[in-house]
């Protein structure tokens, strides 16, 4: 079975340094320095892939990316990340494909960077991590990014990002448990993913997928809560929008999902029921998740048909990212 994983990450020493120096977003990943070798060194990525039966990774910079730097650094930082990624891919063209870091906080420049990265660097789409300075992508100022993606017929991967301090204080801080507990609840345990699902819900409800039918959206973590609520959202959507299609029609037409290392059978079966294998891809979230041989073995042993297994393992990703 050929295996392609699509939410896998890299970084550069320059970006790590800039992030620590300039970003106002706290880095609540205490393992960033420990993970540096597997983020920065592509030969270590290849060795890991060889050991665990992974044929290709679709690589991106997420969470701590140049997107969250102050505006004066974000544009140049994103360009540097993308050119470094393209250079690394050129060394291992059969093992990696890339998604462009977008300086979404400067939307016009983000649209330009997406076009440059796709047409000049060979990237397979772009990635945006979380809300942008507390704003969601349905704000009209971000529409230029969707227009660029639609023109290119490419994919926007919507990755979770660090939520705002105000959100964290209201929703997750508590006197009943520790500050670390609040950080985890606001982050990888729950909060990142809830916000990422809200991002998708707002994009569809605002009509952006109706207006831009050539845009594809990719999300991890089994859809960031959306699949388990899609029928309920359909039930309420006519009260708040006059779009010609149901929410679920846009979702099933233009959104693609992967597990991001959440190798859990109940969620997989739910997503398979709601979306079909032709909208599901595989992902480990490397190196933040290092599941080793489980990355391959879980899918090999999953209760799916062989046709579904092949689509999830590589076929859907090949079609979506033109691999």
From TrEMBL:
<feature type="domain" description="Amidohydrolase-related">
    <location>
        <begin position="46"/>
        <end position="323"/>
    </location>
</feature>
<dbReference type="GO" id="GO:0019748">
    <property type="term" value="P:secondary metabolic process"/>
</dbReference>
<dbReference type="InterPro" id="IPR032466">
    <property type="entry name" value="Metal_Hydrolase"/>
</dbReference>
<dbReference type="GO" id="GO:0005829">
    <property type="term" value="C:cytosol"/>
</dbReference>
<dbReference type="Pfam" id="PF04909">
    <property type="entry name" value="Amidohydro_2"/>
</dbReference>
<dbReference type="InterPro" id="IPR032465">
    <property type="entry name" value="ACMSD"/>
</dbReference>
<dbReference type="GO" id="GO:0016787">
    <property type="term" value="F:hydrolase activity"/>
</dbReference>
<keyword id="KW-0456">Lyase</keyword>
<dbReference type="InterPro" id="IPR006680">
    <property type="entry name" value="Amidohydro-rel"/>
</dbReference>
<dbReference type="GO" id="GO:0016831">
    <property type="term" value="F:carboxy-lyase activity"/>
</dbReference>
<protein>
    <submittedName>
        <fullName>4-oxalomesaconate hydratase</fullName>
    </submittedName>
</protein>
């Amino acid at each position: 079975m050929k295996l392609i994983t699509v939410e896998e990450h890299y970084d550069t020493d320059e970006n790590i340094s800039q992030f620590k120096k300039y970003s106002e977003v706290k880095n609540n990943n205490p393992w960033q320095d420990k993970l540096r070798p597997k983020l920065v060194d592509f030969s270590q990525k290849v060795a890991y892939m060889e050991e665990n039966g992974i044929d290709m990774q679709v690589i991106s910079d997420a969470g701590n990316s140049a997107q969250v730097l102050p505006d004066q650094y974000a544009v140049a930082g994103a360009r540097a990340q993308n050119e470094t990624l393209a250079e690394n891919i050129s060394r291992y063209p059969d093992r990696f494909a890339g998604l462009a870091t977008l300086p979404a906080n400067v939307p016009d420049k983000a649209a330009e960077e997406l076009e440059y990265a796709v047409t000049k660097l060979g990237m397979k789409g772009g990635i945006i991590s979380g809300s942008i300075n507390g704003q969601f992508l349905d704000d009209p100022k971000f529409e230029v990014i969707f227009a660029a993606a639609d023109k290119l017929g490419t994919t926007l991967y919507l990755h979770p990002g660090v939520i705002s301090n105000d959100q964290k204080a209201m929703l997750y801080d508590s006197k009943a448990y520790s500050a670390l507990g609040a950080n985890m609840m606001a982050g990888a345990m729950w909060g990142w993913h809830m916000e990422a699902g809200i991002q998708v819900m707002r994009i569809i409800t605002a009509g952006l997928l109706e207006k831009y039918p050539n845009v594809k959206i990719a999300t991890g973590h089994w859809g960031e809560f959306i699949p388990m609520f899609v029928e309920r959202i359909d039930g309420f959507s006519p009260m708040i929008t006059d779009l010609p299609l149901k929410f679920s029609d846009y979702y099933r037409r233009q959104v693609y999902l992967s597990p991001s290392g959440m190798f859990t059978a109940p969620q997989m079966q739910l997503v398979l029921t709601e979306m079909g294998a032709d909208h599901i891809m595989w992902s480990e979230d490397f190196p933040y998740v290092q599941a080793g041989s489980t990355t391959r073995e879980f899918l090999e042993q999953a209760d799916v048909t062989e046709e579904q297994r092949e689509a999830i393992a590589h076929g859907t990703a090949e079609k979506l990212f033109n691999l």
